[in-house]
Amino acid sequence: MRRLTHIGAAFSAAAITALVLLVAAPAYAHNYLVASSPTEGETLTELPSEFSVSTNDTLLDLAGDGGGFAIQVTNEAGDYFGDGCFTIRDDSLSTAAELGEPGSYLMLWQLVSSDGHTMSGEINFDWQPEANQTISEGLNAPPACGGGTLDETAPTDESAPSEAGNTNEFPAVDASTVVLVASAIVLVIVAGVAIFLISVKRKKSES
Ligand SMILES: [Cu+2]
Questions:
Q1: Which residue, 48, 84, 166, 186, has fewest beta-carbon neighbours within 10 Å?
Q2: Which residues surround ligand 1, an ion (CB under 5 A)?
Q3: What are the boundaries of each domain within the chain?
Q4: Got the DSSP string for 30-41?
């Protein structure tokens, strides 16, 4: 009877630990996309007032300088559109851009989640402008907000880290989440086993 009580206590402790971790988990989750303009696969016939992505939670711009954030619009030829400036508003990131000749376009976005993790993605869309729409010239390098292109302001040293380095933050994000979940599971198992062993030992010493 006493042993059953101990096992029950062990399971209760494990269950409570698991429950606490489940409740705490959302605090560690990164933002996810809830809306975008345009949407994936959309055909635009008129220029939207802004190109944007919206997430489920506040975006983290601690320094207030937009570090870690970017939103770029390119066509199939790799030409860039817009002026490189963007706005971070609560849970969304946006930029204004005029587009060029009709065809397939890509919107690339990168942002810093409320948990400090960097996220990025891309949205494909089609541009089939109505006759009254303005057609703009693209740039052959990413525009720098305030004028010029990012290539002009970037270091000329070939060994300097390239922009591609940013995408490496993705595995790091996922790895930390995996470690967190794995630690939680291990913690629950260890706690359960420890309580069970203590209860068995206690039972032996009593008999
Ligand atoms: Cu995260």
A1: 186
A2: 30, 115, 117
A3: 2-26+177-206, 31-154
A4: PP-EEEEESPTT
